[in-house]
Amino acid sequence: MKRVAFWVALLALLIGHPLHAQSTDSVSEIKAKIWEAELAQRNFARGLPHCNELNGTNFYFDARDRVLNLQDYRRSLDNLVAQGSFNIDTRRPWNKEDADARLAQVQKQAVADQASCTAAASLPFLRKKLKELEQQQTSAPAGAVAK
């Protein structure tokens, strides 16, 4: 299942960045992308095993090392509001505004989690591309200018 997620993420990356555009990337641009992907991999290490589930409709809840569905989470927030449960963050009962704000926060997290998975999955491709570009630059004639 993890391999499927890897290939889906890699395919998404390739669709978003066509190969002809990649060929014009400089070595420094590829190195920057590799650095960003490695950073995402380090910062999201605990969430990476769940990447096959992190498709924008779920988010990774680090405190419990779980993946939560956004719709289910919304229902839970609605229940907290209906029950008038205490909100530790605001030090008062949950209200609709609190629930909406929290839902917006985890929706952004779902997008960020998906991006982290895609970035981490792109590392092998980026490293291969860097190696190819470096080989092209070293094999280019002395008078030629590398793009």
Summarize the topology.
Blueprint: H1 2-16, H2 19-22, H3 27-43, E1 58-61, E2 66-69, H4 70-83, E3 86-87, E4 92-93, H5 96-121, H6 123-139
Antiparallel strand pairs: 1-2, 3-4
Helix pairs in contact: 1-5, 3-5, 3-6, 4-5
Describe the structure.
Residues 1-8 and 18-23 have low confidence and may be disordered. Helix 3 crosses helix 5 (96-121). A two-stranded antiparallel ribbon has the order 1-2. Strand 1 and strand 2 (66-69) form a beta hairpin. The chain is mainly α. It contains six helices and four strands.
The span between the termini is: 39 Å
Q: How are helices and strands ordered from N to C?
A: HHHEEHEEHH
Report Rg: 21 Å
Main pleated sheet? 2 strands, antiparallel
Number of DSSP strand runs: 4
Quick overview of this protein structure:
By secondary structure, this protein is mostly helical. The chain has helices at 2-16, 19-22, 27-43, 70-83, 96-121, 123-139; strands spanning 58-61, 66-69, 86-87, 92-93.
Primary descriptors:
147 residues, mainly alpha, two-stranded antiparallel sheet, 63% helix, disordered N terminus
